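Dock flavin mononucleotide; give full complex structure.
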Amino acid sequence: MPADEPRGTDESGWEVLEASADALRGAMRLFPTGVTVVTSGQEERAEGMTANAVISVSLDPLLVLVSVHKEARLNPRIREEGYFAANILAADQEGLSRLFASPERSSGLPAIHSLGGGYGSTGAPLAAGALAVIECQLEEVYPGGDHDLFVGRVVVVRMGDTRKDPLIYHEGGYTTPRPVERPGEAGAFVDSVRGFDVRLQRLRDRKRR
Ligand SMILES: Cc1cc2nc3c(=O)[nH]c(=O)nc-3n(C[C@H](O)[C@H](O)[C@H](O)COP(=O)(O)O)c2cc1C
């Protein structure tokens, strides 16, 4: 049986798949994320790459992690420069995301031109029009299979026009968030034992305080 063939449906209704790259990709397609362009280096050495494997790791100390493929041009650049910036893209920046996810894109000055925001305090290139930029000094690099995990200490946070919607990556395409139904309409977290909506209960508790 090929690794990505379904094993069949179990008694609880799950379609159980052998672990494989396709199965993992298929599950992660269902996990919407924001989109960043991670940058490092200046002038001819400038590099940027679209990345959604970006997480806030710790608040004390302030640490952010970016997972970068071992073969990506950005990988050696962050190691050499010792800093990076995660530019959090707005809904109107899909073009920038597509550009910096393209293997044919230019590095160096054309990349700086496309990003259009000059340099940050760390020296990392900034994307004009980004919702926010998190600038980091490189703290540690951990191996992560075919990727490397770059952990940075946050040194500067820049806030842009936060009224704009974020760019979202979901099911292999780009979208923007839809407003969530109000708790009163949604019945979102029904506790299967007690049979009440946990979120509504919490709201009521809060009002009582
Ligand atoms: C929405 C999106 C998110 C991505 N996230 C990552 C990521 O977190 N890490 C990574 O290494 N590549 C990621 N990629 C793929 C790279 O952007 C792409 O492969 C890029 O061309 C790699 O750089 P290179 O051309 O220098 O190899 C992502 C692509 C897209 C479209």
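Observed: The chain has two domains: 32-175, 182-209.
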